[in-house]
Amino acid sequence: MIMKSTNGSKSGRPRGWLTAGAVLVFGGLLPACREPAPTHDTAASAAPSSAAPSSSARPGTAFDALDGMDVRKPVPLLPMMANHQKQNMRDHLVAVQEIIVAAASNDFAGVERAASRIGSSEQMGRMCSHMGAAAPGFTDQALAFHRTADTVAEAARKGDKDAVMSALGRTLATCTGCHAAWKQQVVDESTWQRLTSSAPPTGHR
Ligand code: HEC
């Protein structure tokens, strides 16, 4: 999903932190730690009809009011990961923009180039696993997104514009499906370590 190395990217986002962050995070994991998830995970229990953050761990702030209204499942992330995820998300949208602009002028090489930025790769798979390490099910959805994006590039290689557009439609459905299900939840280092050492490693729900 997120961390594919994108040589053609115009966003100029930082890349170096990721390796360092992964080393820090994985290096700091304590496999023996098996505490339960924190109570801030209110997504499943929050009443959709109520806007009040009654079950929040930190009631009374504007942020908690928003969090209480947003009943999507949380994806716990360290601040740097959350920031990087959002940078990548914005770049995903730029890639979609570039696909559409290129397709409109039958520039299939341009479609393929833009689509490959959101397609599958080994590095992307590793990064998706990292992002979903504390949110079982998230990584599966992320990988399905990238595999669907691969079909845009495949259609472009065949020079088939109709197939490009329908593959892009299916890809966007994976974007919106994930957005409907998940929200970011920024956590500190100790919470991250606790969550990642208690979550199932493969990310199945
Ligand atoms: C596997 C899940 C997943 C997929 C697939 C996904 N996103 Fe996201 N996206 C997220 C999450 C989680 C957020 C943060 C949402 C929140 O906390 O409100 C987000 C946020 C965003 C944002 C807001 C960024 C910001 O600066 O706040 C944009 C734009 C976005 N995604 C675009 C896309 C596009 C375009 C696609 C598909 C081409 C896509 N995303 C696919 C999970 C996903």
TrEMBL record:
<dbReference type="GO" id="GO:0009055">
    <property type="term" value="F:electron transfer activity"/>
</dbReference>
<feature type="compositionally biased region" description="Low complexity">
    <location>
        <begin position="43"/>
        <end position="57"/>
    </location>
</feature>
<feature type="region of interest" description="Disordered">
    <location>
        <begin position="37"/>
        <end position="66"/>
    </location>
</feature>
<dbReference type="GO" id="GO:0020037">
    <property type="term" value="F:heme binding"/>
</dbReference>
<dbReference type="InterPro" id="IPR010980">
    <property type="entry name" value="Cyt_c/b562"/>
</dbReference>
<dbReference type="GO" id="GO:0022900">
    <property type="term" value="P:electron transport chain"/>
</dbReference>
<dbReference type="Pfam" id="PF01322">
    <property type="entry name" value="Cytochrom_C_2"/>
</dbReference>
<protein>
    <recommendedName>
        <fullName>Cytochrome c</fullName>
    </recommendedName>
</protein>
<dbReference type="GO" id="GO:0005506">
    <property type="term" value="F:iron ion binding"/>
</dbReference>
<dbReference type="InterPro" id="IPR002321">
    <property type="entry name" value="Cyt_c_II"/>
</dbReference>
